[in-house]
Write the structure tokens for this entry.
Amino acid sequence: MEFLNSLFGDGMLAMYGGAILVTLKVTLLSTLLAYVLGIPLGVLLYGTSKDSIFPNGTVNGIVGTIVNIIRSVPFIILLVMTQPVAKLLTGSKIGDDAFIVYLVIAAAPFVARMIESSFREVDRGVIEAAQSMGSNNFQIITKVLLPEAKPSLIVGSAIAITTILGYTPMTYLIAGGGLGQMAIQYGLYRFEADVMYISSILLIVLVQIMQETLNYIAKKSDRRIRGK
Amino acid sequence: MIELCNITKTFHTATADVDAVRDVSLTIEKGDIFGIIGLSGAGKSTLVRCINFLEVPTSGEVKFRGTSLAALSKKELLGTRRKISMIFQGFNLLSQRTALKNVCYPLEIAGVPKKEAEQKARELLKIVGLEDRVNAYPAQLSGGQKQRVAIARALATDPEVLLCDEATSALDPNTTRAILELLKNINETMGVTIIVITHEMKVVEQICTKVAVLDHGTVAETGYVKDVFLAPQSQIARELILPKSAAVAEVSGGPVLRLVFDGQASSEPVIANLVLECHTAVNILGADTKDIGGKAHGQMLLQLPADEASCARIRNYLNDRHIKFEEVNA
């Protein structure tokens, strides 16, 4: 009883609840914004590639290089390097809002590559058929590529969201909150391993729920499977 | 309706420039069912894509109703493509849309109101015989049914020309026959000009009125199907037309003749009489009958005895009976 009390009593339950909410907010908002930036970038990467719908080697080369550079910089260094951007956008270099900016900068190029790869899975013949019917490029993107790639895009979003969630404990470095921060603060600095384990288990549960939910939606939405 | 003038299409690869199509000129009249036949790699698919500018020719001109496609603006070209529909070997349906929504697609992008589009799509699906599968997804349809959906979709914008790129090559013989019958019907009842790309002579025989034989990117010969079939001029046309067994047969002894029966002479027991009158045996290497435009046409490969006198007698006999024949170098 004493043990449980130290874990959950004395306002600890409220702390876990608050941490879950902060983690969810940071993760979901970052993912959303990463997609807002990543979708146009992904479309650009796909569309400008060779033999695609609006091939342009120069644009493809430039965008591709920028995306690759950002993706190869470790998150912790990117976080330091892009502090001026966070300051400009949120007024502060630290805190949860600033952290969202860092996460979006790190995740958008990754999201762009995943969207590009989902689009590549769409049968070239289907795009050709749409072209033969007089579709313009915008119609091909919105009415062919996005709907046809939908199941793959949803599976991709599950990967993106769990990857972003995996980065959230680093928010501790800039005084942000959430489950990761709890795990580090209590586990690493106060030697309260139990709190660290519970926070970590909660993180794992969150990942599982998001992954399974999105996989289920992807499967449900896919009409290529017989008998539905 | 469609004029191709000196079309050449060159693909630049890392190692060399490849001419997929070389200096092709063809005229397709309104109402034709025009076959373009050739072996794999002959340039058929590239040529047909030049007709709707999915591939822009390196040189030469494509004219649709007298207007050069190269002269059109991007927007006009998209509009023209709605008048030149296309179906494919791989059907290329949108996998996440039902049959009905697939047929609606071309109407949707043309800005037709949803209700109107759906009504038209239902009518078209009825024409192709799929009124009971409107809500099925492509994954739930057989190959033949998928191609029917694709045909309905191609007809949605009331096209004047329908391009068929190996449209039956992925289908079994019975389904192929049914799909070709449907295409023929569409040609007759709706007046749609049809261009059929194929590597199978039997497709051309079943529905085409005219044919162009393509070989290594150039037109080897062109004309009415009947004429090309009865008297193929080019080596490639002979290869495509000759019965399959001819290629397998080991030819030893005398020359090989290809006899062509044009529907009239087939009531007479020609070969039996030939053997009786010429007092010599012949070896039948292969024979088949083809239905061209509703008329039965037959052909037979005969191997003659090695001695010249018998051969001369047989040739005289065939000439007497007005049976067309040619010597084949198998």
